[in-house]
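quick one before i forget lol
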Amino acid sequence: MDELEFIDVRELRICVNTVLNTFYTHSLLLHAAKHQPTTRMEKAVEYYTADLDNFFNQTIKEHAQVILSYLLTICGGEMRHLPKYNQKSLLKKLANKVGICVSPEQIVIKRLRDKIEFGGNRDECYTSIIRYLQCSAKADVQEFARLLVVGFNEVKWVKESMGGKRWGQIAEIAHKYYSGQIETVQFLDTVFTLRHNAGRLFDKMMAFARWTGEDAISEQLKAQAEAKNITELVARLSVIHDGFEPGCVTLLERGKTFGWWKDDLASLCQPKPAIQKGGKND
């Protein structure tokens, strides 16, 4: 993926419901634009398609990068629970998996601990992780993400409420996206379906939890899966959550001029940025 500047997402307000609405609406707009027969409006459609591509690169990729920063941070924060368990046997198992034949003190957990400070409360741990992500080379961040995947998937976590396979899935999608194994569309499409052990994903920071209706995400995904066309998609999504990126609403208004749908879909949407400044003390 493109170079990413990691940010402290705790300083933002992020509404994932708006991210989701915007993402799937844009996908259908792009599909509509690219599968139209040649008409006298062909040049206008060409410009419209270019604007859809620009919106994806400028807005939807920003959404993905903010969510990636969040996922890597909370996965690192969850890993702080690991050293509380039977550390020696866990470290030996990790050593076998990653092929590092050295003493337990020198293998994966130590390498993670060398990168960030697992001690203190969750917020202090997040600060350490964010600082590491911001100051490290891409290869080091990739290795950090890979070690998180190993730590969650290859270690027997004692308490079902902590770590384990569900967290491994979260760490794995973050690692794959950052290392360029998957594209933005697959990353976001997968992230919306992931949950940690408590059945949530966006509850680990107030920057997300306060502005995101997590229960509504499942309803939005159901609407997206069942919608047969963009009219049905926007109509159903807007009932569940009416927020859409302002740029997406503008693209909906322009799309209607091509006659691809009859309803005034833009009027169903409230133009609301998915990401805004301010968060920590709000």
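fyi The CA atoms of residues 74 and 204 lie 7 Å apart.
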